Amino acid sequence: MKNFRHKTVSGIAWNIVSQVGQQTLTFSIGVILAHLLSPSEFGLITMITVITGFAGIFAELGFSAALVQKRNIGKEHLSTVFWLNSGAGLLLMLIFMAGSPLIAGFYNEPQLVLLTVVISTNFLINSFGIVQKTLMTKSLDFRTLSIVEIVTVGISGIIAIIMAYNGFGVWSLAVQAVVISMTKVVSLWKLSKWRPRFEFHWWAIKNLIGFSSSFAGTKALNYWARNVDNLLVGRFVGMDALGAYSRAYSVMMFPLTSISRVISNVMFPSFSLIQEDKQRVKELYLKITRTIALITFPLIFGLFVTVKPFVMVVFGQKWIAMIPILQILCLLGIPQSIGTLNGNIYLSQGRADLQFKVSLFLKASVILGIVIGLHWGVVGVAIGYTIASIINFYPSISYAERLINMSFSELMRNLSGVFAFASMMAAAVWLLGVLLPDNWPHWAYLATQIPFGIVVYLISVHVFKLKAYVDIRKFLYEQWHVRFTKTVGGLTV
User: Fold this and answer.
1) Count of C-beta atoms within a 10 Å radius of residue 282
2) Average pLDDT of the segment spanning 299-326
3) Averaged over 155-166, what is the pLDDT?
4) What is the helix (H) or strand (E) element at residue 7, kind and residue range?
5) Where are the domains of the chain?
6) How far apart are CA 461 and CA 471, in angstroms?
7) Which of 121, 265, 311, 315 stands the most exposed, by the fewest C-beta atoms within 10 Å?
């Protein structure tokens, strides 16, 4: 029990350190590249990655999640999955190289032929590191994974910036994508002790295929629900619009990838370890969701009311088309920051099949919303996506929570305090912006509103002793106390 708690807490801590470092580094590199490159160049790369990203789901075939979820895994399973993934990666690479003219023809962009050939090499490269990463995840070794991620982002980012500065344009982003894959795989092999053996067993595949196929199907549905907008904007609106849309989406996702997904990555293996004890899973889920909300809700609400000065200061005048798109997508960030954990409940309870069935209906409605919104251009797409996702929030939560004997109303009560305080903070920040002089530069608005919002929010949650805030304070105190005691004890000895 203590070992489980220690590993979970340690995993979350290392994941937060990694993701804060990685996402901050990624965001900073993205901002620099946004000043060196144009929206159309970002749009070109997004056109390719929309399609290759979907195919990448089948390169992994869902076996990583199956290896994590299944308790009794032998060496035969690991080697078999490694060779199967490698074969799938090679096959997909060859298919995309041969089909690159078709992708270019679909978008009517000849430049995409060679770009697709280069980026498709990622299928083969990434396949060599899947099992190593899975083993680290299963053992909750997030410290090693943290090192890999930060090193990968740093090296690839530096290379991309140097290339962009020297006029390589869109190729800076293409090379960055390949370097990310190469650096990650080399690092995983360097830091992992596991090596594949030359063996392949069909019985091992059959042992995992039931879970992995449902998981891969759900992942494919989720992928298109989140990326059909990019596909349609790129095909029917154009590169510039897609560049602005994809940048806006990545900014909205920043708090989600930094906080929600980092905890989600830890929770799946942690939930799997206690999967029979539904009450413990439920208590842990409620505690984690209000902790996520405590951080992500004010970030998203704050961005919503300061979006114009934020875009103008961080990205510059040529990215002004991002502003209405980003403001709409901020509304999407609230349900998505909480919904990220749903999949972990399904998977930990071994119900990837139910997740697939629920996703089949819910994600289809999201795609429908995006298609309808396309009639009003890129802003319409953002509106359609957001409305459909908000409508789906209740059913997507409800089905998962029934597996751990929890109701939707319990979750809403759990999050209501954080939502209220984040909303009041955003209202105060907006009112301050209205009262400030109209002739101030954009940076002055940000420099005034952001500190004001932080102070208002922290004072509010502290004075009213919000439960999520008290939980975090208690956790940080306990961690500090343990470390301090060990240090003093070591010095005393």
Assistant:
1) 17
2) 94
3) 95
4) helix 2-36
5) 1-200, 279-493
6) 12
7) 121
